[in-house]
């Protein structure tokens, strides 16, 4: 029996080894076949022939390599040979692809840190959003190998197309220019991320804040690996039996099995923590512009990273994707650096320290050993050959963003559409359509975002099932409107209006209306009113108000109810909490605030006198006209005041007057609602867009003012040039400003003018020389003091001394440069003035033959 069990175990292990060999053979076959196959490109993305681009206008640095760049390529080849020898199972590194001119360039030289003059691009999210919107995605020719070419950001911006590597280089250039510690990443990702397939993902605009935070934290689900390691083959999804609609939708939502899982090459951007107050290291997918945690399961491994200064190779195991990777680029065990700098981690080095470190090294020795900082190769490049993105991105193109000003992104049960500002006449810039099914046939909700509207409309939500519309406004609306919810703009229908209460005198925050009620909510009022509720009755005759919208036949007021907050300056039994005016019943109910340690509140009910009980316009007060429920304290005379008819009479008289004022306020509220509905209807009928006063291209009035101001300034400059001081005036005054001079006088004026210039040049040189000698003497005194006291100085005092000496040495250097420049330019200035005097019309007649 033991022999049989051993044979079964041997057969089982042999079977597992055979399966593993079959899997590895299949992966190798796929790897060999895929590069030869045609990659499926979506039909809506037209093919672009990159060989037809115009390279004649590109700088000469694009078409040739300088000696330093050639040396850099030689170092890269040597590094690649060592890497291939030590890691034969790893894929080839992405080191020096060809550019648009067919010239090999080291990948780090393609990154050009650039800060564009748009405030939106000063932050990483603005840069990422711009790159994802402005460029059109092109898939890699082979999904499992890096591209053979890498074009410059200038060309990519010009043609607005590129693959993931082009996206990453452009985004990394902008982020580094904005001050971030950003790097391009060559690695592996899932099929959905590589192909920009968002149909299985929830739209970011639909995520709740908790879901967004959970996504950023990046809790993974399954292990992944890169090509440097062995990686698990994804299991097949077996479908069997009858599936219900809900189960079928769940199966459709799951991604299909990818035969190239873990092999698909992708490029993205890594942003390390530290600079720009970034608290945590994260990834940016350049295709979408979204940030991802380094624990995100869609990133399956990293081969290498690089920026504009250096290149690092990942030496860590990626069997668990990027979850276990440590992004300390100064760790030589985890990251193999190509151009050695120092033992100090790169992210801890400032630009000043890097320049100082570069100046202190022996460059020739580093070249011989292959250790050379990348800055050395940029020292000889002129600024004209650098890539500047600003001229290629004027304001109009920056605002247009997407190709032809429009972009569509499909998500799970949602469609997101984007437009450039001012492209749509109604100011629409974004629309999100939410569907009930995965096929996107039944619309549930539509959200629209607007910009630059005169009515300050910012967003509109429309529920297609209930036909409920909610509009949100930015501060600055004509009537202080903040939000408006309605089903129809017709009056006396359901409306909910929210206001910016700070912009209103009455402190109105919200108003809710339907066919027979209006409820108003207030904030921060001096009378402590916070709710006013109004009920209306039916009209005697039906009149259509859509056209007239007047209060000729207003709804009769049935009841007005007001609620007040507690006023601590009054006793609780004298502070009204609620008062109800029953208009039709001629009754007024008052309820006071609840006193401490009491379970019931005081109340008063006033009944108005009938017309036959009135004497003229005066009210005849009787005890039956007021019913009081008073909480009596055990104190003498506590309720005597309420028992007097005079006090009750005055209270009823005041309430009657306030009732009249409330009726007027109710009518004003109705009129305001009608006015808002009329204004909103007119604003939607004729939408007006605004333009900033700084946008002279769209703001015609501002452009005319700017042109008029420029013309005025030009006229003032011309007049000022005419009134400039005459350089010969101090010398002509000595001879009496004669219009006709003699030859002797002309020669005297010439000699005096040249002598004065000579004295001023000598005096200036003497001043610079004196300052130079003073600085040298100060440095010598500092050095002598240090020689005497260096044994007694602390480390902080030594740092102060070195800093002071550095400043003095810098000042001496500047003064020496200025002195040499004065010595070189003085003869030229003298000759220029002499020539100017000979050409002066007042002296030319006498000096022509002198």
- Largest beta sheet: strand ordering: 10-11-12-13-14-15-16-17-18-19-20-21-22-23-24-25
Low-confidence stretches at least 5 residues in length (pLDDT < 50)? 1-7, 16-25, 30-45, 211-243, 342-349, 354-375, 377-390, 545-551, 633-639
User: What is the arithmetic mean of pLDDT?
Assistant: 79
Task: Give the radius of gyration.
Answer: 41 Å
Tell me the strand percentage band. Answer: 15-25%
Shape summary: extended
- End-to-end separation: 131 Å
Oligomeric description of these chains: single chain
Description:
By secondary structure, the protein is of the alpha+beta class. 36% of the residues lie in helices and 17% in strands. It contains 20 helices and 25 strands. The chain has a 16-stranded antiparallel sheet, covered by helices on one side. Strands 6-5-4-3-7-8-9 form a seven-stranded antiparallel sheet. It has a two-stranded parallel sheet with strand order 1-2. The longest helix is centred in the last third of the chain and has 47 residues, at 743-789. The relative contact order is 0.05. The N terminus is likely disordered. Residues 645-672 form a coiled coil. Residues 1-15 have a biased composition (Acidic residues). Belongs to the DRC7 family.
Summarize this structure as a short list of keywords or feature phrases.
850 residues, alpha+beta, 16-stranded antiparallel sheet, 7-stranded antiparallel sheet, 20 helices, 25 strands, extended, disordered N terminus, flagellum, DRC7/lobo, cytoskeleton, DRC7_C
Present the secondary structure layout:
Blueprint: H1 2-33, H2 67-86, H3 107-110, H4 124-134, E1 136-137, H5 153-159, E2 161-162, H6 164-177, E3 182-189, H7 191-194, H8 209-217, H9 245-253, E4 265-271, E5 282-285, E6 290-293, E7 299-306, E8 311-314, E9 335-337, H10 351-360, H11 363-369, H12 395-400, E10 406-411, E11 414-419, E12 428-435, E13 443-450, E14 457-463, E15 468-473, E16 481-486, E17 495-499, E18 508-513, E19 517-522, E20 529-536, H13 545-548, E21 557-564, E22 576-582, E23 587-592, E24 603-607, E25 626-629, H14 640-643, H15 645-685, H16 700-722, H17 729-732, H18 743-789, H19 795-839, H20 844-847
Parallel strand pairs: 1-2
Antiparallel strand pairs: 3-4, 3-7, 4-5, 5-6, 7-8, 8-9, 10-11, 11-12, 12-13, 13-14, 14-15, 15-16, 16-17, 17-18, 18-19, 19-20, 20-21, 21-22, 22-23, 23-24, 24-25
Helix pairs in contact: 4-6, 18-19
């Amino acid at each position: 029996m033991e022999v049989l069990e051993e044979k079964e175990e041997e057969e089982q292990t042999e079977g597992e080894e055979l399966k593993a060999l079959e899997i590895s053979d299949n992966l190798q076959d796929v790897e060999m076949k895929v590069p030869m196959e045609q990659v499926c490109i979506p039909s809506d993305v037209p093919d672009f022939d990159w060989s037809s681009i115009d390279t004649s206008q590109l700088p000469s640095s694009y078409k040739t390599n300088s000696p330093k760049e050639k040396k850099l390529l030689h170092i890269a080849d040597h590094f690649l040979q060592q890497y291939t020898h030590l890691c034969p199972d790893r894929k080839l590194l992405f080191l020096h692809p060809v550019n648009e001119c067919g010239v090999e360039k080291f990948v780090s030289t393609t990154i050009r840190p650039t800060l564009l003059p748009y405030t939106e691009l000063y932050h990483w999210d603005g840069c990422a959003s711009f790159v994802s919107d402005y460029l059109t995605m092109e898939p890699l020719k082979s999904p499992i190998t890096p591209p053979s070419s890498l074009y410059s950001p200038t060309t990519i911006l010009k043609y607005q197309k590129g693959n993931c590597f082009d996206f990453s280089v452009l985004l990394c250039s902008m982020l580094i220019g904005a001050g971030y510690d950003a790097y391009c990443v060559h690695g592996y990702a899932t099929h959905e991320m590589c192909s920009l397939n968002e149909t299985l993902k929830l739209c970011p605009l639909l995520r709740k804040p908790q879901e967004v935070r959970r996504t950023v934290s990046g809790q993974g689900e399954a292990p992944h690996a890169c090509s440097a390691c062995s990686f698990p083959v994804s299991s097949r999804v077996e479908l069997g039996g009858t599936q219900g609609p809900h189960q079928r939708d769940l199966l459709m939502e799951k991604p299909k099995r990818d035969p190239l899982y873990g092999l698909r090459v992708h490029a993205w951007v890594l942003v390390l923590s530290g600079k720009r107050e970034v608290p945590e290291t994260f990834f940016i997918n350049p295709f979408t512009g979204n940030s991802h945690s380094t624990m995100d399961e869609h990133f399956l491994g990293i081969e290498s990273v690089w920026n504009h200064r250096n290149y690092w190779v990942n030496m860590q195991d990626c069997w668990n994707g990027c979850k276990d990777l440590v992004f300390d680029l100064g760790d030589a065990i985890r990251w193999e650096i190509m151009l050695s700098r120092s033992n100090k981690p790169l992210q801890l080095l400032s630009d000043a320290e890097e320049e100082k470190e570069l100046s202190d090294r022996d460059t020739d020795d580093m070249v011989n050993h292959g250790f050379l900082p990348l800055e050395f190769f940029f020292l000889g490049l002129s600024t004209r050959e650098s890539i500047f993105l600003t001229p290629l991105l004027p304001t109009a193109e920056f605002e247009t963003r997407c190709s032809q000003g429009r972009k569509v992104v499909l998500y799970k049960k949602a469609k997101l559409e984007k437009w450039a500002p001012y492209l749509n006449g109604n100011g629409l810039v974004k629309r999100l359509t939410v569907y009930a099914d995965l096929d996107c046939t039944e619309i549930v909700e539509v959200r629209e975002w607007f910009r630059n509207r005169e009515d300050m409309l910012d967003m509109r939500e429309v529920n297609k099932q209930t036909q409920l519309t909610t509009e949100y406004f930015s501060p600055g609306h004509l009537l202080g409107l903040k939000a408006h919810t309605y089903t129809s703009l017709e009056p006396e229908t359901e409306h909910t209006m929210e206001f910016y209460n700070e912009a209103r005198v009455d402190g109105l925050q919200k108003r809710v209306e339907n066919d027979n009620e209006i409820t108003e909510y207030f904030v921060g009022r001096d009378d402590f009113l916070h709710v006013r509720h109004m009920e209306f009755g039916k009209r005697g005759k039906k009149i259509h108000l859509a056209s007239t919208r007047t209060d000729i036949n207003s709804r009769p007021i049935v009841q007005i109810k007001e609620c007040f907050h507690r006023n601590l300056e009054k006793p609780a039994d004298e502070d009204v909490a609620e008062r109800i005016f029953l208009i039709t019943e001629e009754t007024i109910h008052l309820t006071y605030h609840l006193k401490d340690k009491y379970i019931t509140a005081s109340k008063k009910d006033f009944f108005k006198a009938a017309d036959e009980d009135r004497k003229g316009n005066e009210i005849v007060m009787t005890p039956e006209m007021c019913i009081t429920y008073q909480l009596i304290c055990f104190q003498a005379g506590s309720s005597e005041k309420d028992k007097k008819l005079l006090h009750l009479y005055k209270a009823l008289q005041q309430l009657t007057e306030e009732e009249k004022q409330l009726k007027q306020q109710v009518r004003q509220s109705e009129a305001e609602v009608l006015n808002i509905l009329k204004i909103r209807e007119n604003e939607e009928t004729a939408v007006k867009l605004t333009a900033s006063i700084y946008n002279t291209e769209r703001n015609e009035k501002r452009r005319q003012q700017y042109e008029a101001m420029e013309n005025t300034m030009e006229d003032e400059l011309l007049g000022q040039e005419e009134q400039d001081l005459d350089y010969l005036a101090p010398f002509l005054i000595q001879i009496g400003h004669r219009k006709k001079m003699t030859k002797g006088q002309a020669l005297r004026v010439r000699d005096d003018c040249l002598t004065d210039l000579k004295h001023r040049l000598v005096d200036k040189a003497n001043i610079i020389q004196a300052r130079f000698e003073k600085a040298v003497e100060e440095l010598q005194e500092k050095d002598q003091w240090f020689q005497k006291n260096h044994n007694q100085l602390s480390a902080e005092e030594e740092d102060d001394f070195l800093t002071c000496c550095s400043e003095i040495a810098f000042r001496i250097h500047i003064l020496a440069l200025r002195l040499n420049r004065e010595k070189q330019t003085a003869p030229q200035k003298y000759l220029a003035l002499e020539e100017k005097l000979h050409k002066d019309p007042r002296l030319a007649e006498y000096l022509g033959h002198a």
